[in-house]
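User: Need the bound-state model for FE2/S2 (inorganic) cluster:
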Amino acid sequence: MNSYAGLPDKIKTYVNDWKAKKGSLIMILRYIQDYYGYVPKNTSFILAKELKIPLARIYEVLTFYNYFKLERPAKYRISVCMGTACYLKGAREILDGVKALNNPHFTVEQVRCMGCCGLAPTVKINEKAYGKLDKDKILEILEELC
Ligand code: FES
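Assistant: Bound-state model below.
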């Protein structure tokens, strides 16, 4: 009998569907990441117990892949592209400007090429991409959000 106490039914079902399959840990963690927007600590504890794997193995995966987040994201997730094209066109100044706001509604992260180098420098706010930015433009956009 399994006891996924505290986990939503959708996650329990997903874990049950995947746990016997090869490579299931990443698939399960990815589902949890998509469900919550991060992987809560208590969920990792429950998974370790139910999948009978060391908690350290789960954290090994969570900390290896940039995709996984360990903290609940703020309302706005700001991804500043630091790929070569964006970097050469001022991404560092944009990143520093956004970080300096120190706004609790913003989670700021650096990402690699977002695949729209022609619009460099680029920033994604949640799922919306903005291009041809400079520090002043991104600060204006962020000010309008709050
Ligand atoms: S380097 Fe930023 S989108 Fe490609």
